[in-house]
Description:
The complex is a heterodimer. Chain A is of the alpha/beta class. Chain A has a single domain (2-220), classed as P-loop containing nucleotide triphosphate hydrolases (Rossmann fold). Chain A has helices spanning 44-51, 74-83, 100-109, 116-129, 145-157, 175-192, 203-206, and strands at residues 2-12, 17-28, 33-37, 59-64, 67-68, 85-88, 163-167, 195-199, 211-216, 219-220. In chain A, the strands form two sheets. In chain A, strands 6-7-8-3-9-10 form a six-stranded mixed beta sheet, with helices on both faces. Chain A is globular, with a radius of gyration of 17 Å. Chain B has two domains: 2-46 and 293-423, no CATH class; 64-73 and 86-277, no CATH class.
Amino acid sequence: MIQLEGIEKVYRTERIETVALTNINLTVGEGEFISIMGPSGSGKSTLLNVIGLLDVPTGGKVALNSKPVTSYSDRNLARVRNEEIGFVFQTFHLIHDLSVVDNVEIPLLYRKGISSSERRKLALRALDRVGLHARVHHFPGQLSGGQQQRVAIARAIVGNPRILLADEPTGNLDSQMGDEIMDVLKGLNENEKTTVVMVTHDPRQAEKTERVVRLFDGRQVS
Amino acid sequence: MTKHLLKLVWNRKRINFLITVEIFFSFIVLFGVVLAAVYYVDNYNQPLGFAYENVWRVAVEMNDRGEDSQSSQIAQTDGTTPKEPTEKAEPVTATTFKQLIASAKEFDEVEAVATATVTPYGDGTDTSAIGDDSHPIRYGVNVVSDDYLQTLGLTLTRGRWFGKEDDGANYQPVVINERLSRDVFGDADPLGKELRRPNLPPKQEEEKRTPMRIVGVISEFRKDGEYTAPENFLFARQLLNNQMSREPRCLMLKVRSGTTAEFEEKVIKRFQSVAKDWSFEIEPVTKMRETANTFRLAPLIAGTLVAGFLMLMVAMGLTGVLWQNVTQRTREIGLRRAKGATARRIHKQILAELVIIATFGLIFGVAAVVQFPLLDVIGDISSRVFSLSILISLAVIYALTAVCGLYPSWMATKVQPAEALHYE
Ligand SMILES: Nc1ncnc2c1ncn2[C@@H]1O[C@H](COP(=O)(O)OP(=O)(O)O)[C@@H](O)[C@H]1O
Ligand SMILES: [Mg+2]
């Protein structure tokens, strides 16, 4: 499902060179649920961004759904991000001037041939899948953190991607809400066979996944 | 997508309000200037009706008033129908004008000469009206001698100009322009018809008895020049005999092309010898035209400068607001990129939002300016000129906002999703 081969990532600013990732080799099978752990600054987000095609590695090869990502043209990147990947962030990144359901519809706006009524139907269904039935016409600011993250997950899965990437999805939530979000992710993984890669700080949440990849200073340590 | 953007713009109405207001006011100011410009251009493109090249106006100042008693006597008897001729003498003024015309004709350089009461591009105006008091039809008047047609190169479209054949007639021969004919008679033939005068004060009752009969129609005569709206016009015949009711104010000379200013002095000297106590002043009509048109264009030029400066300020302000708007939304833009929007798509979105915001401002702007005709603040501007001005102003404002949005929307395409979504 996901194959990384010798991934390198170096950030170059005017004078400083930061090596964020060094020789990462990772294979995630279809339907797997893995977590990435490591101290702050160890390159977890960078790795997830490389998998999610939000960032271009300075070296190495990425393959998604056993198709190598060779062309990094803007159009191709956008299509893969839209159709194959769902991304969930620590800070939700909801658009505050749009209602919950409008937020969830966003990925579908960038897909051809979906009518607005179809979009609405799919968005409501996605919200249903994450257990958010009410408040769909509220604005994100009127919801709790846990509810906001559910909205963000609904937005990530509305287009039925095969891969779900979550960067510390429970990092901004208390443990009870964090557990609820973990249940949602687990449910998606078990019921819909979605491949999930989750970055976490929390060993308790990491334990619930099938496999843990540990990073230290940009290197894979297990 | 449009619905999505409409919601987004609407939900951000507090931030977008400022831009809407800016657009609204720029539209109003721009519309004012564009309306004036379109009005002028529209007027300019319509026929003038006369030829001003090589026409000189000789302003005549009749200082000698020794014969005052006689002229006042004439004034009282003016308008008496020629049916009951009086045996009074011809006024000195009439005789002198006839002598001046004769002396002007002696010059080889002078091709035609006529007297007139008003001059194209000149200050003086003379207006009258017919019809009832509630719906008067107004028109400009010029009382001219028989050669005026050739002197100013007017174009007859129907009938004839007045001349000797009208001597002693029981009507006052007049020539009107097509516009006045249309206003009074519609499609009917005006020739031979009479123009009814409005109710005159008792003093002028007498004059009522001499009806004005239309003997001809000219295409046009736009006394105030090409920038003013065409108006109704009427030419009445100047009599230079004992029936003279009005004194001419000037002589119009059509001179041979290439006649230099030195000739002016020769003419004045000759005229001076004919009428010792009168004074004369010559000015080519081309020069009067320049002066009058400069005077008319000055407000438009000033308005254009003010509006241009305002547009520049608005454009700069708008670019600033949009730029700030984009920088505050890098997270949103990064998110949209992460969810599958191409850079092109982002570019289009920012511009589309701007068009929506501008459209709000412009809807209010158009709604405001269409009140102008209802409130009757723009006079006789045609609806064609009015709507064309609206269209031009809309196009300019849209173009302006698009230009202002170019840089900010380009900047939006440079947002890197990973960086934009990195931290809070
Ligand atoms: N856009 C960037 N420019 C420069 N350095 C960066 C950038 N993003 C991340 N880094 C650096 O790369 C390293 C890894 O960062 P990150 O992947 O965010 O770590 P983690 O998510 O594990 O905390 C850090 O040293 C960080 O400072
Ligand atoms: Mg991180």
